[in-house]
Design brief:
With about 110 residues, the chain is mainly alpha-helical. The chain is built from six helices and four strands. The strands form two sheets. It has a two-stranded parallel ribbon.
């Protein structure tokens, strides 16, 4: 899969993350499949800010840390967007990470 196709697959998954929920780079990479890594997902997120329908603020690292915050227009924009969705943040980390984590595998279980 080439980079453009990987990015599109990543964006398709990120668009599915529900309001008030988050997912991790690694889980998204696993969904995309062979050849995709958490680092590639991070690159895709930093490249998507001109795509208003990709909620990049909902993608965090595997412990809930807002590692992508510096790729937004301001260092607090990611946190502000998450808080606006009702997600609690403490010290640049999602306070209730397990409770708001969304696993794309739950989609398969719904069908």
């Amino acid at each position: 899969m080439d980079t453009l196709a990987q990015y599109q697959a990543i964006y398709d998954i990120v668009r599915l993350i529900p309001h008030g929920r988050v997912c991790s780079y690694g889980v998204i990479a696993k969904c995309v499949g062979y050849g995709c890594t958490a680092r590639i997902v991070g690159r895709a997120m930093s490249a998507c800010h001109n795509l208003p329908d990709v909620p990049a603020h909902r993608v965090v690292n595997s412990t809930g840390k807002l590692t992508g915050r510096f790729h937004f227009a301001t260092p607090t924009e990611m946190e502000d967007l998450l808080k606006a969705e009702g997600i609690s943040i403490k010290n640049d980390k999602i306070a209730d990470f397990k409770a708001v984590f969304w696993d794309p595998d739950t989609l398969a279980a719904e069908f």
